[in-house]
Amino acid sequence: MILLKPQLSLRRLCVFCKGLSVYDEYFHDGVNIIRGTNSSGKSTIADFIFFILGGDHNKWKPEAERCDYIIAEIEINNIILTLKRMVSNSSRQNMAIYWGTLADASKSVAEGWQEFPFRRSENIDSFSQVLFRALEFPEVKNDNSSNITMHQILRLIYIDQLSSVESLMRDEQFDTPLTRNTVGEVLFGIYDDSLYSDELSLRAKQKELESISRQVDGLIEILGETEQEIEIKKIEATINENKEQIQKIQATLDNQTILNKILEDNDLLTVYKELHTNLSFLKNKYSSTLNDVQALEYEVEDSRRFISSLQKRVDALDESIKTRETLGQLPISFCPHCLSPIHPELSEDICSLCKQNIQKDGLSSQALRMRQELLLQIKESDLLLTEKENKLTVRKAALPELNEKTRNAQLRFDETMLKVKTVRDEYIDSLLIKKGELQGEIEFLLKQVKAAMILENAKSKKMRLGSEIKGLEHSIQTKRAKQKNRIDTAFDKINEYARLLLTSDLPREEAFQTVKNIQITFTKNTFAVDNRNQFSASSIIYLKNSIHYA
Fold first, then answer.
1. Which domain range does residue 435 map to?
2. Which of 47, 304, 393, 426 is packed most tightly, with the most Cβ within 10 A?
3. How far apart are CA 189 and CA 416, in angstroms?
4. pTM reported for the whole predicted model
């Protein structure tokens, strides 16, 4: 039998109340009919199915509200999983997942079970993400107001009796057109993850461009009002001129005749001690920062190698799963020992060679669980790597300023050492004052360089963002054009099957017998036949069910 992916089927549903099973039913492939008299619980069972598969349901009937929890065995793409959720009046309940059969899950209280929240977080996946991966759905990277979950998928699959008959999807407050449209594209198989990534990236970059443009304008305005130079080359030229003047002043100071009385001057001795303390502090701080940079560089490289090794393990695990699936399909016709013909077993659950029972789902479930754990390690390691890279950037940025401060402190200390044995005259004082002014101006100019560099980087970033936005707009336009062909094909199929169901019904609705086109609008949550959606209640329900079946 050919496996069509994605495939999800319910195999067994169990409802428990006060430790006792109040409902336990097996389900088979194909159509399952839940039948009974009025008010016998048919809709409640349907609500339980919607809830256990990931729907968000908290308005239970009194009888259902007395139940404690639900367990279901499901099959996703030939993999058996067991799901468990607590019945509660609170919305967004967690889901526990066991990678195996319900019989195996019932033997384990905690081991093998993994609990996932309704909503994703920075460090923890939601149960919808886990089920989407098993279904091989693309991960829908949308904004926070339109996250696609199993609940949203089930809104289109599950038809309840309380929603409006004119609504294509189950009614819900605070529903957005983007959410409905994305759900439709996912189920139609036309969802393009790269397209949505481009659209979200375009939106983010447009916001970033607006922010950086305001930053550039603000910096230009501030620097212009203070009459500060904004060209880095001109500022650096002024700094070099000041340094040359300082060197000339220092050369003059070194050639002066010094008197040996300064040691008795307590004021100068205090200055000397302060400069010595400051210089030692700056040297230690520079050395410590440099050591931090080297250590962080090693840690960043080590983290990158670790993440790479984890990714290789994931790739190797994927290859292992594919190899097992491939080799498991090879028939063995002759015994490898005696070369006698091997007669195939009537049951697929028994090995034709060794006559032992074959466990279909155990290894696959274990492999998927190992893969899930490896992906979680990669995600956590990526977060730690980002934190280390941010620390490294901060440390590196501090080195130039520390180096300049240390150099200036060393110059001041050296000057003081020379003057500890001299008596300064007016000429030397004037030189020192001039030198101090030049050094102060250099420090001010260095701050100007920093501000100018920020402005220059902002301008470069603005240009880069503008170029990236143009590229994204072109990419989105191209992908939208390609997607349109797939959308048309999907809607043509729905139109074909729905028309077949409508025309095959009893001829009680004339419009259904001559239907030409069926319209579905996910953004507006509506559907129509030849632009008409006003029919009798029974007819519109049949139309709605025909579209859902198609």
1. 230-327+353-473
2. 47
3. 78
4. 0.52
